[in-house]
Amino acid sequence: MPSAAGTVLDIAGRYAIVNGSSPAKQYVGDRGVHSDPQPIVIRSVTAASVRGTKSWTPGSGNGFVTAEDLHIRPPPTPHPPHTLSN
Q1: I need a labelling partner for 33 at 20 to 30 A (CA). Which of 5, 15, 52, 70 fits?
Q2: Is the overall model pTM greater than 0.85, yes or no?
Q3: In what order do the strands lie in the sheet with 54-58?
């Protein structure tokens, strides 16, 4: 995961949710796809859980949650490396 440090929030099956601390972001990784997993979801740190292929986060109001199917989500587009020129 692209964070210097972090805390595992939840793991279920092949998916893991990690709260990174530097930068403070939440990463969802697919542990079954890569030997060095890159996150398939990067978002602000929030309450979250993963069950099966779904990531659950707070919804739009009290008592509501939102499910996102991780199995059909494409990985984020990687950014090209920065180069310094003289």
Answers
A1: 5
A2: no
A3: 49-51, 54-58, 65-69
